[in-house]
User: What shape does this take?
Amino acid sequence: MASRKSLLSPDPAVRAANLLLLCVVLAENVFGLIDANAINVAGVINIDLVWQILLLVMSVVLYHRSRRVSGTKTSAVQGVLFAALIVMCIFAAWRCNALTGQPFVRGILPQRGFMVCVLAAILLRRPFKAGLVDGKRLFQGLIILGCIASALYLLQALAGSSVTFVHAASNERYGGIRLYIKGGLSTVSGIVGLWLCLRDGDWRYIIPTVLALAVTLFVSKGRLELVTYLVTLLVLFVFSRGSASIKVLVVCFGFLVLILFSQTEMFGRLADSFVNGQVGGSEDTSSIRDAGRNYYDFVLQSTGSTFVGVGYPSTLYLPAISMAGFDYGYYLVDNGVSGFRYVYGDLGVTIVVACLAFAVWFSWKNRNGHIRAVILAFLMFLALPAVNLAWWWNTSDWQVLTAIFVSLAWIRSGTWCSRLGGVARA
Assistant: This one.
């Protein structure tokens, strides 16, 4: 007989959680083991299409099933705000067509993942509230898959260029290789791991937290990501429920790790980069970002598009990417909310801020206090670096994870017990 928690579990709620986890893995190019660039036909047919179709179909099916469960209605205002984002994406495609002649479809295709995940966030809230997705299975899967991702990324960084099995762009930083990986699973497993360690007092859950920190330090090597991750863990530590003795031990363990790391050569290089703004002797990366933001402001004002933006430029249409400053090295992905504002204008930014505020509000209102802290920590990790990095907008694994965590804010009260290892469903 199949195990209740196996991939093909007879429990439909467990199967739904497994499929959501599969979407995240596919959105992360199966931990980077698949070369996404080798599967791309004119920006239309690629591996992203697989998880987008899967996520969209299962969201529609689960929503249809949730309508049969009484007492599962969700906020219409939040739904309207999310729907407004989809409308903004369609308008952005038309806007870029009007300004540069870019074909309308070319403007839609780069936004496809974001639009699918916003739609998924609208649809999945009700299934979570109806108990059609097993939250316990979801968090356990994030922990396991995150550890696998972290281990693979660390092994690739250790192997260097001699052996390549994780496909990601790379350069040198702090005297070693830096990989531009999709680190959503790794980071989220670290956040979830600390939450469960504090809540359940099980030290095994600290493993993904340490692995995710190692990935940030030795693989992705992003200064802003590192600070954001540590601040998020600190806030989670302060506001999570848990025994005082466990928290004291976590603090002692953290200080021990810091002392050991401070003795390494990399610590000195990292400290220097924060002090003088240099990264391994290269130019300060903030300079080109500042130049990009000034350029975006100039284009928005000169075209009279400050309120609605100038639309999404396709990399396959030269006039649009030229107007976006690609020729000068200004990329939307490197400029966070400034790049978002360039595409959607002040109106788009206002809608996103409202969506975040509503997500925080419903997370805080959730009577299921056991998961409130981890949802708020996830949202904090997205919001803090938004000046430079908007993972929720332009990185596929973070798009799926954002849809999932927004929906988790509606998870049915009573679905969780006091410990993750207990009975998951009421």
Summary: DSSP finds 17 helices and four strands in the chain. The first helix runs from residue 12 to 27. Residues 99 and 228 are 37 Å apart (CA to CA). The radius of gyration is 22 Å.
